[in-house]
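HOLO CASE FILE
Compound: flavin-adenine dinucleotide
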Amino acid sequence: MNFQFSESQQTLVAQVRAFSEAEIAPYAAKWDADEHIPREQIQKYADAGYFGMTLPEEFGGRGMSTLDAILVIEEVARHCGISGRLIVDHNFGAVGTILNFGAEAQRRRILPLVCRGEKLMSIGMTEPEAGSALTDLVTSATKDGKTYIIDGEKRWITGAGEREFTLVYARFNEVPGPEGIGAILLEEGMPGYTYGPRIRSLGVRGVREGVLLFDQVRVPEENLVVAPGSAFANLMSAYNGQRVGASAVALGITQGAFDYALEYADNRRQFGKRLTDFQATQFKLANMAIEIDAARFLIYRAADTARATITSRYESSVAKVFVSEMAIRVTSEAIQLLGAEGYGRHHPVERMFRDARAFTLAGGSAEIQRLGIATKILGRSLPQQADDQRL
Ligand SMILES: Cc1cc2nc3c(=O)[nH]c(=O)nc-3n(C[C@H](O)[C@H](O)[C@H](O)COP(=O)(O)OP(=O)(O)OC[C@H]3O[C@@H](n4cnc5c(N)ncnc54)[C@H](O)[C@@H]3O)c2cc1C
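Model generated. Tokens follow.
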């Protein structure tokens, strides 16, 4: 075990910090207020090499370790949570699924486009009646000659209507539960593929959350990424990296809120003293720092388990639960340190608090992560319904 960053990691962090301070920090509040991050800005992340960091170079990636990618994400998210999320979505999740389980031709066609930022990627799992109980999903994929016909609806899809590719989880046969589920790539512009209204959210507003509608969408069979059968476990395992990436975003947001609150408290005077001269403030800051540090090491441990973007389920879930709940506590304390000022929109901690709130929900709720952790501790499956294997 080595708790020190290597020289190259220190250089990497310094480079990303300089980039973030120049290209992200001045605009993050505007993207939140506009509820939109411009495509030109997203292109800057691809141009900087932040998409496909962990992918092999032959697919347009940089062949970096998951831990190094996590360092980049954390640094970006210190200033802007949505930018961190964009980078996660183009390193893990659907990208990781295609890398690990897609056909060679798919990897060669799709991944370089994503790494270059020419095509953006979403993942479509959640449905109106299938959230935590994902194995209840009903979006159907019916084979017809050399195409699959997709029918159904997805909800709460990050980037809906803004991204060209979506990896859609669908039911390919009549078999209930996980066995009938596979994943297929849908592309913007396919006839019958449309978007429902935007879902307005508390935080992470710069990226559109929305609804995908599939009405007899014909998708070529070449787009089938993961066939049904025993593949559901693969689909879920590829999602572990997404959880670690999302945790790094939550950590970065929290670190940003802490840094801001620390500086404010050190400058703000009441009762003739700086706020940081009061022991209550000192202990508050110390507690916040302890929580952030603990969260950081859980993320780094999970990242260290990674093989080709897939991290271990247990470590990923432990990190996700702790970090996402820590982020809510600590960003809330950051507001408290600023007093009424912290509640105002003219300081970033208000935005950071709203953004941090997403992570006990997005990417699988904290309760569902706890069920996965309990499964490991108890050494037996804990089905919530007879055929549920998502845990
Ligand atoms: C900002 C954001 C972005 C998202 N992006 C995407 C995306 O890009 N793609 C995508 O597919 N989905 C996305 N989601 C959806 C997300 O994956 C789901 O919200 C999540 O899986 C929970 O499902 P649900 O919201 O339907 O909650 P429900 O399943 O209805 O659960 C409601 C509550 O009950 C709890 N609960 C449910 N079952 C149990 C149980 N057995 N035991 C104990 N507690 C339980 C849950 O933990 C939760 O607190 C996003 C969500 C958010 C908030």
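CASE NOTES: The CA atoms of residues 99 and 107 lie 6 Å apart. The mean pLDDT is 95.
CLOSED: yes
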